[in-house]
Structures are given as C-alpha cells and as structure tokens.
Amino acid sequence: MAEKNLFQKVWEKHTVTELPTGQTQLFIGLHLIHEVTSPQAFDMLRERGIKVMHPERTFATIDHIIPTKDQERPYNDSMAEAMAAAIDNNTKEFGIKFFDPKSKKQGVVHIVGPELGLTQPGMTICCGDSHTATHGAFGSIAFGIGTTQVRDVLATQCLAMTKLKVRQIKVKGRLQKGVYAKDLILHIIRKLGVNGGLGYAYEFTGETIDRMTMEERMTVCNMAIEGGARCGYMNPDQTTFDYLKGREYAPKDMAFAKAIEYWKSVASDKDAEFDDVVEIDVNEIEPTVTWGINPSQAIGISENVPAADEISDEEKKSFERAYEYMGIAPGEPISGTKIDVVFIGSCTNGRITDFREASKIIKGKKVASEIRAIAVPGSHEVAEMAEEEGIDKIFTDAGFEWRLPGCSMCLAMNPDKLVGQERSASTSNRNFIGRQGSPTGRTVLMSPAMAAYAALKGKIADVREVL
After folding, report:
1. What is the pLDDT of residues 7-26, one digit of tens each?
2. Domain count, the chain
3. Which of 95, 187, 311, 330 has the largest count of CB atoms under 10 Å?
4. Residues 439, 67: Cα–Cα separation, whole Å
5. Is the same domain home to 131 and 40?
6. CATH code (residue 177)
7. CB-facing half-sphere around the CA of 412: CA atoms within 13 A
8. Same domain assignment for residues 276 and 303
9. For the chain, how many helices (H) and strands (E)?
10. Residue 460: CB partners within 8 Å, gap ≥ 6?
11. What pLDDT does 311 receive?
C-alpha cells in the first residue's frame, strides 16, 4: 500500500462522495462560527426552512466586532450590536453552543477552539474566517470558507472542495535568541511569495517544528494562508497530546488513550510522497519585519528595504506602491523607522506565551511617551492566566492599555483603529492597505517581543539588543 501524507489520509477519511463537478463532498468534523460571516448564512437556512444538521459539531463565539474596552451590551456601534444580537439569537434558535463574554470562554475563534480542546488531530475543520489554517497545528486540515459555504456546512455538515496538492516544508536548524515562530513564517512567506501556495496545503515538518510549543505551531499555521496556501498543518506528536490532555472537550480517560492511537495513525507516513518539497534553514534567520503592503514584503531587522535595482519587473508595480504608501524609500534601513502605535494580540499572537515573551522585554521599563500601546488577550482564558501571573500589571505599569479579549486592531471592525497615517508595530497577520482601520494607516508586522521593544524605543529596533 502506498505511503500517504496526513492531508491525503484525513481527506480520504472524510470523503462522502465525488461530485459530478470533480470536487469532493467532504464531511466536516468541526464547524466554528463567529458573528461576521454567519448572520446571512442563518437567514438563508430560514428562507428554506432548513435546520442545522449537526448542531453538536458547531460552536460559536464573538470576536471581530466586540469592543475591547467595555463589552456591555448594547454596543455603541449599531452594526456591531446588530451582529451581536444576531449570533445570540441564531445560536439559541438553532441549538448551537455559544461562547459569549458571560460564559468566560469567549475569545478569538482560533484561540478558543484549541484551548477548549475542540480542535483535535485528524479532523476536518472549517470556519468563515481565512485564518482557520491555525487549527492545522494539531494535525487537522482546516479551511477558511465564505458565507455561502458556512450555510452549506450548517445545512449538510459537508463542503464541496477541490483536492489540494501538498507541499512539504522541511524546517531545520535552531532559532536564535530573539527569533520566534512569527519570524519563521514571515521568512517562509518572503521566500515562497504570497501566491506561492496557491492550490496547495502546506505540511510544516522538521526538527525546528518538532521543538516548537503548540502556541508557536499555531502561529506558523495561522499565516500559511498569507503565503497563498489553502491550509497549513503539522503532524501530531507528544507535544500535541500533552496540550490536549484534560481540556474541556478533549476525550477523557480511556477514550483519550484510544484517541491518541487514531491521532498517531493520521500522521504522514515516513516515505509519504509530496507534490513539492522545500527546505528552510533557520540558523541564519534574524528578527523579521514587514516593510511593505503584503506579508512577503519582509526583511531581517539588519537589512535595508530593497533598492529599486534589486527588484524584478513583475515586482516593480507592487514595490513602488509599497514605497509610496508606507512612506519609506528604497534602500533605507528598516531599523530606526518611527512608529506611533503598538498592538500586541490577534489570532496570530494573542496567546499566553506571546504575552509572557513581550512582558520580559517591558518589565520595569516605560513605553516611549509618544506611543499608543495596547495589549489584547486572545481569550478570557488567556486574560485570566496573564492576570494570575501579574503579566497584565507589567503591561499597565509600562504604559500599555490592557484590554478585554477580541480581534481588536488586527482588522479594526471595532473601535480599535489606526488614525490618519499612523504607523503600527503589530503582531497581527496582515499589513494590507487600510487593514487596521484607517485607509492611510500603515502596518509593520513583527513578533510580540519585537513589538514590545518597539514600544519602548518608539521605533523599529532589534530586540536582541536587550536579550
């Protein structure tokens, strides 16, 4: 029997039938929903008199539009209030579990799923959110979907999809001090491009991945989508099993041992074949930040912004737009670039380990006087852990605002926005034009430690200076 990779195994186990279109009808093991992409989907079910087929496989939270200063309803923003009311009403009507703020389990959907043990190896997972790839860190295949597909999964628990090719990305070497999972994924996207993964699932593997915590693995998989891949995943191992043990929705006792047998069985076989293989050596990676308007426009902290004569004809138009929009000249060093705002949070870097790393940098120090700095835990659980450890106080003593859980300034569908041409040092996942709420606001992506150091310096700087 041919050796198979995890993607092939999980795909085959969840295939219901091959459709006349050539697509596969894929059974979805876990469906996560939030307030932005679900209201229209529920309305479509109502119009057709359709119930949710498997409400026990669907879980909801509220994250994109929720304010992070005051979460009491009604919200000041009428559209946000309408979305909050809709998810509250829809989940009650259709019998779906809803993690609202009062439950103390609310948070960013891609943080809540794993910490509750909903996300497990060998699953198919989808959510009406592009960064659903995050869940692949557990050895699942997880897809972001659109509102029409959210309707389809609610109605049938299935998704029509074209099977992907699989690229194995072998990561070897040891990350230097001051270099984190965020730097690694920015480096990979820089190397392969924002469209490099089109039509692919990415399997991240190798000694570097093996040494990572689950939080680090989630950061890498989270941004697979930014490299054009439809999903990114890692093979489950003991780190995965240890993380899941004892979590609310994880199997218990003997069922957990039985689950591990299955989880191990879906891992890629030793001689599995892939459509493409790429090797990444991390030994030379340094803290990496974006300088432009997509995540592939990234450089090491000691590098200069690419000069005009270093770019290809295909890149010219995009690079010229990036130079103009970001207010940065070709050939300039990125280190020393002034910033106005620091945001630490998001589904990419809003976990407890992210705040622990950032707190080490700012402890006993003060944010530069001209900087507006906010720290937004990714969930109530993250917030509670941080507060038990005194991390919130380290942030507030340094001059950060410590906020309530939500997506916040990652995409700014809430009151947390850039103003005018403010430049943000952000731990989020996208640096697109206007992404953080201002049509002229400028975003520089980096790790939590780098963002924390930028807050202290008032500019982009190398965190290794203080490590």
Report:
1. 999 999 999 999 999 999 99
2. 3
3. 187
4. 20
5. yes
6. 3.40.1060.10
7. 20
8. no
9. 16, 19
10. 289, 301, 334, 335, 336, 337, 339, 425, 444, 446, 450, 454
11. 85
Same domain, 300 and 438: yes
Residue 41 lies in a domain: yes
Phi, psi of 263 (to 5 degrees): -60, -40
Contact assessment for residue 425 and residue 410, using Cβ atoms and an 8 Å cutoff: no
Q: Is residue 1 part of a domain?
A: no
| Residue 448 backbone dihedrals phi, psi, to 5 degrees | -60, -40
**pLDDT band at residue 1 under the 50/70/90 scheme:** low
Write out the two tokens for 258.
């039985």
The pair of structure tokens assigned to 46 is 């109502």
The rounded radius of gyration (Å) of the Cα atoms in the chain is 21
| Helix, coil or strand: residue 360 | helix
Distance CA(163)–CA(206), nearest Å, equals 24
Provide, for the chain, the percentages of residues in helix, strand and coil under a 3-state DSSP scheme, each rounded to the nearest 5: 40, 20, 45
pLDDT at position 385 over 80:
yes
Residue 286: Cβ within 10 Å count:
16
| Chain segment 78-99, per-residue pLDDT in tens | 999 999 999 999 999 999 999 9
DSSP 140: -
Are 302 and 258 part of one and the same domain? no
Instruction: Kindly state whether residues 107 and 182 are assigned to the same domain.
Output: no
* Bridge partners for 343 per DSSP: 374, 426
pLDDT in tens, 38-74: 999 999 999 999 999 999 999 999 999 999 999 999 9
Please tell me the distance from the alpha carbon of residue 271 to that of residue 452, in angstroms, as a whole number.
43
Helix (H) or strand (E) holding 171: strand 165-172
- Based on the domain organization, do 294 and 275 belong to the same domain? no
Inside any domain, residue 60: yes
17, β-bridge pairs: 25
**Domain that includes residue 460, residue range:** 288-466
CATH number, domain containing residue 349: 3.30.499.10
Residue 148 lies in a domain: yes
Q: Which of 128, 161, 194 corresponds to the end of one domain?
A: 161
